[in-house]
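Handout, page 2. Input:
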Amino acid sequence: MGRGGIRRGAGRPKGQGKYNEPTKPIRIPESMISDVMKYLSIKGYKLPLYASTVQAGFPSPADDYIEQQLDLNQHLIKHPTATFFVRAAGNSMVGAGIHSGDILIVDRSLNPKSGKIVIAAIDGQLTVKRLSKTSKGLYLKAENDQYQAIKINDASDVVIWGVVTSVIHKV
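Output:
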């Protein structure tokens, strides 16, 4: 029995799929994958959003009905020109649902208010903490009892970069 070569009936059927036309694979250098994905997200790549909800308690029969197409940019980014992404490291914010490796969506146009989670540069080092204003002063607080709050005073070299609006993490 011969090896390799063209075999009649082998491979994917032509002209099937969503667009009912042949497809063409393309190769992208690994260094450009994030740029290509960013381009696709800017162009409004949308995912299906089902009309039914998912029960967190007892199971419910699922619908096969897609309500609409979901554009994550539309739901997660309110001010595109003022928004950036940063990856969290460490476990100081686990109480707020932010884990090491999570992607934080940060909006620079929002006013950093007490109670909001912010990205701050302290002496040039970036950190994510909850901004807290009390009668004793202004603090950057961790959401983990193993870490102490950082007091901000006039001598502190602290710059608030933006307010965290969403967290993306794997389960």
